[in-house]
Amino acid sequence: MSKIITIFTFLFLTASSVFAQKNNSHFDFKKFISKPSIELSYGLSELRINGDSYNLSNAGMIEMKLGFTKQNISKYGKNIINYSNNYLFLRNASSDNYSRSDNPGLSNNMWSFGFGDKKGYGVKTGNFSILPYSSNSIDWTQLTYDQTFATPDEVQALADFDGTFRFGTATEAGINFQITKGFSIQPKYEISDVYPRSLFGKQLMSSVIEYSGLFLIDGFTKQIMKNTPVAGSFVNFVLRNAYEYGFYQLRKNQMNWPFTSVAPLRYNTFKLGMTLTF
After folding, report:
1. CA dihedral for 75, 175, 250, 150, sign (positive or negative)
2. What are the backbone dihedrals phi and psi of residue 90, each rounded to the nearest 5 degrees, phi first?
3. pTM
4. Half-sphere exposure for 45 (CA within 13 Å, toward CB)
C-alpha cells in the first residue's frame, strides 16, 4: 500500500509542477489557466471475465481524483462551455465496501491508480451548468481475493490477476451538474479493463483504431455545433460514449480487439461523485 501512495504522490507532484510552469510569450497564458479540483466518488462494481464472475463478490468502489479543470466559453456561443479535466486517481474497490447485505461469492479487494482526462461541451445558465462528458484513462490494478472456498477452475482463471499490478484502460460517461461555482455532482458509468498481460504492439494498434474513431466523431459533432450548439453538445456526448461502449464491448472477450487476444478482467461500475474546484 505504501508503494501505491508513493507512486501516486510522485505522479501528482510531477503533474502539478508542469501545470504551474509559466507559458512563453507566444501564447495567451490566461486562455490555458486550469483550476485545481478534487473529485470524490462512490460506486457499485460488478467483476467479470468474458461475462463470467468466477464467483467474485460485487464490490463497493471508493475513488479520489486530483486534477486540473478548465471551463472556457466556446466559440459556438456565450452559453456553450468547453469543459476539460486532467486528473490522477487512486481507488479501492472491495467487497467490504459493498453497501448491500446480500453479496454472495468470494470476497475481494482491488487497488488501482492511474491518470486520465475527461472533456465535453455543456450549457451554462447563470451559476448552474450541465456538462456531459466522456473520459478515458489508463491504470495499474492489483486484485486480491479469498481463495478459501474457490474452486480450482476459479483459481486458475484469476491467477494472472491475483496479487500483482496489471496494466489496464477505462472509459467513463457522466454528466457534471455544476450546482454553484466550485461545486458539482456527477452520476456516471465506467467500464474498466485489467489486462492479464501486456502486448505492447497489439495494445498500441488497438488504441490507434479507437482514437481514430473518436477523432472522426469530434470532427462530425463540431459541424453540428456550428449550426445548433446546444443540441450539438449532447450529440457529442451521445456519439462519443456510444462509440466507446461499443468498442469496449468488442474488447469484452479480446482485450486488444481486433487482434486475437485473451479476455480482460472487467469492472462495470455505476458511480456518484462530487467535485470541488478551487
Report:
1. positive
2. -135, 130
3. 0.85
4. 29
Q: Which residues contact 52 (CB under 8 A, 6 or more apart)?
A: 157
- For the chain, list the domains and their CATH numbers: 34-277 (2.40.160.20)
d(CA 18, CA 15): 5
> DSSP characters for 112-178?
EEEEEEEEEEEEEETTEEEEEEEEEEEEEEEEEE--TT--HHHHHHHTTTBTSEEEEEEEEEEEEEE
Q: ∠207-119-209 over CA atoms, to 5°?
A: 15
* Whether residue 104 has a cis bond before it, omega within 30° of 0: no
Residue with cell string 487476444: 261
Bridge partners for 80 per DSSP: 123
Task: Compute φ and ψ for 233, nearest 5 degrees.
Answer: -60, -40
Express each pLDDT in 196-226 by its tens digit.
988 889 999 999 999 999 999 999 999 999 9
The band of 126, judged by pLDDT with boundaries at 50, 70 and 90, is confident
All three cell numbers of 274: 462530487
> Phi/psi class of residue 54: alpha, beta or left (left: φ > 0; alpha: ψ in -120 to 50)?
left
User: Cα separations (Å) of 274 from 6, 59, 183, 242?
Assistant: 25, 20, 7, 24
Separation CA 74–CA 83 (nearest Å): 9
CA angle 79-172-142, nearest 5°? 145
